[in-house]
Design brief:
CATH class: Alpha Beta
Low-confidence stretches: 166-178
CATH superfamily: HUPs
Strand order of the largest sheet: 3-2-1-4-5
Distance between the termini: 13 Å
Mean pLDDT: 80
CATH architecture: 3-Layer(aba) Sandwich
Shape: globular
Largest sheet: 5 strands, parallel
Number of strands: 7
Radius of gyration: 18 Å
Order of helices and strands: EHEHEHEHHEEE
Oligomer: single chain
Helix content: 25-40%
CATH topology: Rossmann fold
Strand content: 15-25%
Structural class: alpha/beta
């Protein structure tokens, strides 16, 4: 069987939680190994009714659109610094920040950026919390048009620290040897 692994673009969404950090480490290690571009996405959730965007009533001093634009810019700077500090110059990456519903924005970015692999965290919620709150990961899984690697928080992953950097220790340089 003649198979080839081709990963050009890997997307990892983050909400800055420890769960998302675990997924990021895995995505960065895969991007380094595959020499793929790493797209790091943060979605700013809207906390109000969209009709306020078009109304004259807004209880704060800034217009709603301006508030979200400033918030997106701040999040992008924070994320850019965090990613650059973590991966250095080893990995090509882009930071994307959007506003909206996280699951819908993730799926939109997957399609728009022609992503080959999505690496996403799960929070490990279950029972009543899962039934009431649902899961962004679950909604994305149903609609993703590419393979999805779901990283469960606290699960033993395949990325290990080596010399201060995250890396694969169990994969050969040439996957065809595996």
């Amino acid at each position: 069987m003649d198979l080839e692994v081709r990963l050009r673009r890997i997307l990892v969404p983050t909400d800055f939680s420890r769960h998302a950090d675990e997924a990021f480490r895995h995505a960065a290690a895969i991007a380094r190994w595959a020499r793929a571009e790493l797209l790091v996405l943060h979605v700013v959730e809207k906390f109000m009714d969209h009709s306020l965007l078009y109304s004259d009533f807004w209880p704060f001093q800034k217009p709603v659109r301006e508030y979200y634009q400033e918030l997106e810019a701040r999040m992008a700077r924070r994320l850019e610094a965090q990613v650059r500090e973590t991966v250095g110059e080893d990995i090509r990456f882009r930071v994307l920040v959007t506003t909206g519903v996280p699951s819908a924005e993730i799926v939109s970015v997957l399609e728009r950026e022609e992503v080959d692999l999505l690496v996403i965290s799960t929070h490990g919620r279950g029972g009543i919390a899962q039934a009431l709150l649902g899961s962004t990961t679950e909604r994305v899984l149903r609609k993703a048009g590419c393979p999805v690697l779901s990283i469960r928080s606290g699960a033993e992953g395949f990325v290990r620290r080596r010399g201060g950097k995250d890396s694969y220790q169990s994969l050969p340089e040439d996957v065809s040897e595996a």
